[in-house]
Design goal:
Elements (H helix, E strand, L loop, with lengths): L1 H21 L8 E5 L6 E3 L2 E5 L7 E5 L3 E5 L13 E5 L2 E7 L4 E9 L14 E5 L2 E7 L6 E9 L3 E8 L5 E3 L1 E6 L8 E4 L6 E3 L4 E9 L17 E2 L10 E5 L17 H4 L1 E5 L11 E6 L5 E9 L12 E5 L2 E7 L1 H4 L7 E7 L7 E8 L10 E2 L1 E7 L24 H41 L1 H4 L9 H4 L16 H7 L8 E5 L2 E7 L5 E7 L4 H16 L8 E5 L5 E6 L6 H5 L9 H20 L5 E2 L8 E3 L5 E3 L6 E2 L8 E2 L11 H6 L1 E2 L1 H17 L15 H10 L17 H14 L10 H15 L23 E2 L4 H5 L4 H13 L1
Parallel strand pairs: 1-3, 15-25, 17-18
Antiparallel strand pairs: 1-14, 2-3, 4-7, 5-6, 6-13, 7-12, 8-11, 8-14, 9-10, 9-12, 11-17, 11-40, 15-16, 17-28, 19-20, 20-27, 21-26, 22-25, 22-28, 23-24, 23-26, 29-30, 30-31, 31-33, 32-33, 34-37, 35-36, 38-39
The structure holds 2-acetamido-2-deoxy-beta-D-glucopyranose (2 copies).
Length: 825
């Protein structure tokens, strides 16, 4: 009896000891975890986020701060307790953390824009900086929650986080983490791959995590990571292929030193995506992943490898690793690198050149060694954006550092400064823009075949898959698209009830729909079964699934059951711009609202034109295709006629004339040559509708007034555009602002496409028209003078809310290639 008791005790002691040595949890010296706006502490896994009223000594108020607490308890679909409350910060607010350990720290910011009785957090707009780095500039959180992670190398005794609300808006925060990192985690520098040879010093930079991916089609939750990282599954980034296999062998991972568990946990090293060897005899290809990034930055990319397959009879062969088609490692032999010990992790850091594209593509594939069989494996990947030379991580940062004391200056000083800075910024951006353009051209000449993957599927054509993926983009892999069943659509629209119709067009009807979880959607149901209808249906899904931008209407899903051609979009509460301009009883839009709508739509179009290697031409820009959400934010819609722009060495696309009467570019009508400038022309017409508040063609008017373009241009050329503005605007538009607007329209409507400005230039002019309209209580410095290509951000942890949750993980390109396949049969 006694013996057994002692024996039991011994086992117990041993197991306790064991669990102590196994639990290698990192214990940070600096460790601030705050659940903002929460009245009580919140436990998440093994950590406690404190209520922020206990840490109020950290939040020092500079000036004009009102601190309100709001809470939202009925977030039932949302499982994370940290997102239930938020703190509103107005004016300028600072968090100051005392730092005991110098070196790299993570700052994680949690945002979830919900609404309660008093505040709608999705109206927030603000900037965040840490020390001297700009983390976010005029940030507007999108629907759904997001956690942003920044790495900062702190060399002083405090870390200061500053939140500045944008004009007439406010900032908010749901939760916050600040803690120091294990020394081994972030390197002091990284080897630059393209152009090869250089080395990037990271110690003076800040980093933002833009992707953290676990290969092998499985996610790893923060609870299974010593640094509470969330690793998303690679499946949505991967080009689908039968040549890809997911492998898993977590038990095989064997840490022998560096890398430690802090570099990546066993759940990451223990799963991998591998080139599928079964087919290797006749199919040789790479495994390729795509990641969205903001152009204009360098990125630190960390590759995690671990041979977890070697024990079986399928020995891992040496393989090549590529980033943006450049060699990162050739004939990588893991067993050599890990002294032939099975299961030992290995990682490699490289730095990209200044990215000119919105994508980073990563491939592993066969080495050229004659002796080795085709193979390739990747276990994990992290991509971190490196702050630019202006110490900013924000893609839309207009490089104006707003002085926090400026509000105390006299207004004319601000005005003078604004105009000065604006002028300099204008010239600088113009130069940068011209340089970039040149560079872009050069790049294309150099690698034209590899670089235009944006529209041609993978540049690394995979022998069997390429004919399916051709024409489909692999860009949007992480985005949402979903195939609805007809039954669900019927339920949402009350079986296509007439009372649900919100619009009618050549294609058929648009219905308002309400999904089971009460998400509102717009359902467009095509009637024509013609080939052309089908082609447009497909073009539209293809276009929408490639692009996600704040000013482009988003795709929710589609339905092609029983020969239906149904596209489901996000619902736009305020309908078309056209309806707000004339022919309805809606309240008239103010000049500022009209300018903001013009700017928003210009952004959307600018993104279409420049957002990928090959421009997308919308072809049907009109006020009826610009939609307004509940905040009157503009989104460009209806991509049914869109076309990809000219090939690099051509200047136009020849095509049959399509589009809407009254908006058509005369040059396109005559020559049938399509360029981005055709959209610029149509947009000029929309701008005229916006300022005059009347239809493009109005047969009820006198002959000289019937055609808006002819009539308005007559007045504009006389310099008297103010005589024909919408009566609602009379006396409310500043003359300088109107002049600027008029000039912009005139340029857009130039007879020859070559004489018209680009959409980027138009955006600039409209921004300055807004600046010239000036105060309305807002400082004029607030312009986002940017050509922000990508307003969507890739986040470390992206949770989704409501119905979107059901849609996540279905990659649109896959959906689309299925459709193409069906068509090919
Ligand atoms: C951690 O990973 C293991 C498998 O490797 C899994 O069984 C466990 O549920 C995970 N724990 C959490 C909290 O995700
Ligand atoms: C893999 O990708 C690289 C870089 O794009 C390319 O040079 C190589 O030919 C590809 N290999 C195969 C087998 O497709």
């Amino acid at each position: 009896m006694m013996g057994i008791g002692l024996y039991g005790l011994l086992i117990w002691v041993l197991s306790v000891l064991c669990s102590i040595c196994v639990s290698l949890e990192f214990d940070p010296v600096d460790n601030y975890l705050i659940d903002c706006g929460s009245p009580k502490n919140t436990r998440v896994g093994d950590r406690v986020f404190v209520a922020d009223n206990f840490t109020s000594n950290i939040l020092s108020t500079l000036h004009d701060v009102s601190v309100n607490t709001i809470s939202k308890s009925n977030l039932s679909t949302f499982d994370s307790s940290l997102f239930q409350t938020a703190r509103i910060l107005t004016g300028t607010s600072q968090y100051t953390f005392s730092i005991k350990k110098h070196g790299w720290h993570w700052v994680r910011l949690y945002f979830f824009p919900f609404a309660d009785e008093k505040y709608n957090l999705s109206n927030a707009k603000f900037s965040v900086s840490a020390q001297n780095f700009t983390l976010l500039r005029d940030f507007q959180p999108e629907n759904g929650s997001v956690v942003k992670e920044y790495s900062l190398n702190i060399t002083s005794n405090s870390l200061v986080l500053t939140f500045v609300a944008s004009a007439n808006s406010f900032a908010f925060l749901n939760a916050l983490e600040v803690f120091n990192l294990p020394d081994e985690l972030i390197p002091s520098g990284g080897k630059i791959i393209d152009p090869p040879g250089g080395n990037q010093n990271l110690l003076t930079r800040a980093l933002e995590t833009v992707a953290r991916v676990n290969m092998g089609n499985s996610t790893v939750s923060p609870q299974n990571d010593t640094l509470w990282r969330h690793w998303v599954s690679d499946e949505t980034h991967l080009i689908p292929s039968i040549l890809v296999a997911f492998v898993s062998n977590v038990g095989a991972v064997n840490y022998t030193g560096v890398p430690t568990q802090n570099i990546a946990p066993p759940e990451v090293y223990g799963t991998a995506t591998r080139l599928n060897l079964d087919k290797r005899a006749d199919n040789i290809a790479n495994v390729t992943w795509f990641f969205d990034v903001d152009p204009g930055f360098e990125y630190l990319v960390r590759f995690h490898f671990c041979d977890i397959v070697n024990s079986s009879d399928t020995k891992l062969e040496p393989f090549n690793v590529y980033m943006n088609s450049q060699l990162v490692a050739s004939d990588l032999d893991l067993s050599n690198l890990t002294s032939n010990i099975f299961g030992v992790p290995y990682y490699k850091d490289v730095v990209t050149g200044l990215s000119t594209s919105q994508l980073i593509n990563i491939s592993v594939g066969p080495s050229e060694l004659e002796s080795s069989l085709p193979d390739g494996i990747l276990n994990g990947l992290e991509i971190m954006k490196i702050s630019n030379s202006r110490d900013s991580l924000d893609a839309v940062d207009p490089h104006i550092q707003l002085s926090t004391s400026s509000s105390k200056m006299k207004v004319w000083v601000i005005l003078g400064l604004a105009i000065g800075v604006l002028f300099i910024a204008l010239i600088l951006t113009l130069i940068v823009f011209l340089l970039c353009r040149r560079r872009r051209r050069l790049v294309h000449v150099g690698h034209s075949t590899q670089d235009n993957f944006a529209m041609n599927g993978g540049g690394n054509a995979q022998t069997t898959e390429s004919k399916y993926s051709n024409g489909t983009s692999m860009i949007s892999s992480s985005k949402i698209g979903y195939r609805f069943s007809l039954a669900v659509i019927q339920e949402a629209t009350n079986n296509f009830s007439e009372s649900y119709v919100v619009g009618v067009g050549g294609f058929g009807k648009v219905y308002k729909g309400v999904l089971r979880d009460e998400t509102k959607v717009a359902v467009k149901r095509g009637v024509s079964q013609s080939r052309q209808g089908l082609a447009e249906f497909r073009t539209e899904i293809e276009m929408l699934s490639q692009f996600r931008h704040r000013h482009l209407l988003s795709l929710v899903g589609y339905c092609d059951e029983q020969n239906e051609m149904i596209i489901v979009y996000e619902y736009m509460e305020n309908g078309t711009l056209k309806n707000h301009l004339y022919g309805s009883n809606l309240p008239s839009l103010s000049w500022r609202q009209r300018l903001e709508i013009s700017i928003g739509s210009a952004r959307g179009l600018h993104y279409l034109h420049t957002g990928s290697a090959k421009a997308i031409i919308h072809r049907d820009v009109k006020s009826a295709n610009i939609l307004l959400d509940e905040n009157l934010m503009a989104k460009v819609a209806d991509f049914g006629l869109s076309k990809t722009g000219p090939e690099i060495d051509e200047t136009h696309v020849s095509t049959a004339v399509k589009g809407s009467f009254g908006y058509l570019d005369p040059e396109y009508l005559i020559r049938q040559q399509l360029t981005e400038k055709s959209d610029v022309y149509s947009f000029g017409v929309v701008l005229l509708e916006i300022i005059c508040g009347r239809p493009v063609i109005d047969p009820s008017l006198t002959r000289e007034m019937v055609n808006l373009v002819e009539w308005a241009m007559k007045w504009q050329k006389r310099g008297e555009l103010e005589k024909i503005v919408d009566p609602h605007l009379v006396g409310k538009v500043k003359l300088e602002s109107l002049r600027k607007f008029g000039e912009t329209v005139e340029k857009c409507l130039a007879e020859r496409g070559a004489d018209r400005p680009t959409m980027g230039d138009v955006l600039w002019s409209l921004e300055s028209a807004l600046q010239l309209q000036g105060d309305d209580g807002r400082p004029p410095l607030n312009g986002e003078l940017s050509n922000n290509h990508l307003e969507t951000s890739v986040s470390t942890t992206q949770f989704s809310v409501g119905s979107m949750g059901d849609l996540a993980g279905v990659s649109m390109n896959r959906v689309f290639s299925q459709m193409v396949k069906a068509e090919m049969r």
